[in-house]
Amino acid sequence: VQITEIFASIQGESSYAGLPCIFVRLTACNLRCNWCDSEYTFSGGQKMAVEDVMVHVRSHAPIKLVEITGGEPMLQEREVIPLMQALIEEDYSVLLETSGERLLANVPREVMKIVDVKCPGSGEAGSFKTENLDFLNERDELKFVLAGREDYDFARQFLREHHLERRLRNIILSPAFKKDARGERTAEHCLLDPQELADWILRDGLNVRLGLQIHKFIWQPETKGV
Ligand code: SF4
Fold it and tell me: Which of 2, 42, 99, 119 best tests ligand 1's pocket when mutated (most atoms within 8 Å of CB)?
């Protein structure tokens, strides 16, 4: 597996936000989202055997929650599926953060998938494979990162069109963070004001969760490896 970094931190997103978590960040991505904060994963990294990754993961005991992220981890499907299986065998709870641009059919059912649907503001709208909706079970999560009102309207339309609000327990609408955010840990760095997003969600009565990237508020927004 080509790995950019392995570290323990507080989970910043999804319904697992706030929990101690080990992050296994894989190298490379085939998308180029405008607000991407992980461009350092696009190249480089280090080739590691699954067992070497497991050694690093075990060194963060007693944490038993692992997120496989990137980059786009499913670009290395052949290597990452055995890693998921090894983690499951050792009783880790495994999260997979993915853009949904690759098919998720072979992801073991024990893995909890957190799947992004890219909105127009990302510059990568249309990259999501709608077949992936068939591979989501009710524990999985769908996430929309929003840069403005157009993205919110896109997300609302997508949810309605595919009847997802009743089917999935966790749908997350999250304001995008400014890529060049530096210094203070404030909501001013969000491309979309969280308060405005809250108003829209309440007005429309959407059965979704408003998500903030809490690691950007715990540490300086530019900090990597958190
Ligand atoms: S999919 Fe993720 S890693 Fe890839 S460009 Fe978009 S935000 Fe960055």
Answer: 99
d(CA 133, CA 22): 27
For residues 133 and 161, the answer to whether their CB atoms sit within 8 Å is no
Q: In what order do the strands lie in the sheet with 2-10?
A: 46-47, 2-10, 20-26, 65-69, 93-98, 112-116, 141-146, 170-175, 209-210
Torsion sign (Cα): 162, 35, 175, 120: negative
Q: Letter for the amino acid at 185?
A: R
Rounded to whole angstroms, the Cα distance separating 192 from 126 reads: 21
Instruction: Give residue 203 CA to ligand 1 midpoint distance, Å.
Output: 30
How far apart are the CA of 178 and the centre of ligand 1, in A? 14
**So what's the pLDDT on residue 154?**
98
pLDDT in tens, 151-206: 999 999 999 999 999 899 899 999 998 877 788 888 888 999 999 999 999 999 99
Structure tokens at 123: 């510059």
Structure tokens at 42: 């696009």
Query: Phi first, then psi: what are they for 6, rounded to 5°?
Result: -130, 125
DSSP 113: E
How far is 192 from 177, CA to CA, in rounded Å?
8
Atom from ligand 1 closest to the CA of residue 41: 3
Average pLDDT score over the chain: 95
